[in-house]
């Protein structure tokens, strides 16, 4: 086996794995940010007094 070719092949596999991991980390961080922003929006939109008193007239 050619040692140089084997070394290049292993390095390429390592770079591909590191790139895949970096992209996955970015996706996870984006997902966390989106989730946090969604929770903040929901918290701001909820009014604790809404729906407690209903005015009914006939």
TrEMBL record:
Q: Which domain of life is it from?
A: Bacteria
InterPro entries, per database record? YjfB_motility
Pfam families for this protein: YjfB_motility (PF14070)
| Name of this chain's protein | Putative motility protein
């Amino acid at each position: 086996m050619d040692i140089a070719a084997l070394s290049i092949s292993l390095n390429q596999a390592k770079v591909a794995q590191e790139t895949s991991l970096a992209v996955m980390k970015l996706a996870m961080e984006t997902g966390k940010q989106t989730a946090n922003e969604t929770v903040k929006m929901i918290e701001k939109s909820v009014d604790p007094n809404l729906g407690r008193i209903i005015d009914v007239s006939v």
